[in-house]
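Q: Here's a chain of 314 amino acids. Please give me its 3D structure as C-alpha cells.
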Amino acid sequence: MKFLVTGGAGFIGSNLVFELKKRYPDVEVVILDDFSSGHFKNLIGFDGEIITGSITDDNVIKEIEKRNFDAIFHQAANVDTTDHRQKEMMETNCEAFKKILNAALKTKASVIYASSAAVYGNGDVPMKVHQPLFPENVYGFSKYAMDMFTYKFLKEHPEMHVVGLRYFNVYGPRETFKGKMASMVLKLTVQIMKGKKPRLFKWGEQKRDFVYVMDCVEANIKAYESFKNGVVNVGTGRARSFNEVVDVIKRTLGVDVETEYFDNPYDFYQNYTEADLTDTEEILGWTPQVQIEEGIPAYIDWIRENVNINKLDF
C-alpha cells in the first residue's frame, strides 16, 4: 500500500506523516511539498520519499496518477488568510483540489482533505456542517468551494471515499515555521517566555475552538479508516476565550504578567467559533482527547526542547 501526504512538510502534514509511519509500518508514505511554506526541519527523521513540486503543476498531478496511491491526505494549500489575491487563492486551493480528486478517481484512492472553519465566517454557534455558510475572505471561500465540489463529486461518484475536515484553530508542535500564520497559542507563549506582556485584542473575551494538532492527526486517520463520506468539523466542541488561553500559558510557565489590550485592526474577524461534532462522531467515530489545559502544557514542553524562541519574531 502507498499513502501520499500533500503539504507533508507543513504543520499538520508533518505531524500526520510521522504518525502514519508509526501506525502503518508496512505502508509506503510519500510526501509532496513545494516547500513554499513547509520546512525541511519538520521532516528530520523521515526516511521516505519526498517529491518536491506544486499541486498547481499539471505534471505533478500526472505523477500522482501514475503512482497509484491507495490514499491521498491532502493538506497542501495557501493558508494565508490575509492573502486577498482571489485568482491565486482559488487556483491553489480549489482548482488543484479538483485535479487531485480526478487523479484519485482513476486509481480509486481515498482522499482525506483539509477544509476549514473559515467557511462559517461569523455564522451561528455552535457551527454545524450544514448550516448556511458565510466565508468572509477568499481563503474561507476557497475552502467553501472545495466542500461544494466534494458534494458534487460524491454525487457523481458514490463509489469514491472522500472526507473533508473543517479544522478549527489548530495549535501544537511543528508550526514554528508558519510565521505570521502561526497560532495565537504559539505567539502568546513566545511573548511571555521573552518577558513581554501578552497582547490581545480588546478585551480578550473573543472565543475560539482551539484544537491540538495530534487530535487533527487522529481525525485524518479515523477519516481514512471509516470509509464513510462527508464533510465534518474538527475541533473540541468547546469555545475558549483568549483570556483563558493566556491564563493557562501563565500557569504553565509559572509567571504572572499583565495583559496588554489593543484595538482589533481587522475589518473582518471571527469573534466566536465552536464546532458542533455531531456529524464528526457519526462519520469518523472520533472525539477530541485534548483540551487547552492538557494541550498547552504539552506544547510548551515541546517548545522548550525544540525551539529557539529568540529566532521567532513574536
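Q: Can you summarize the key feature?
A: The chain has two domains: 2-169+210-234, 172-209+238-265+291-311.
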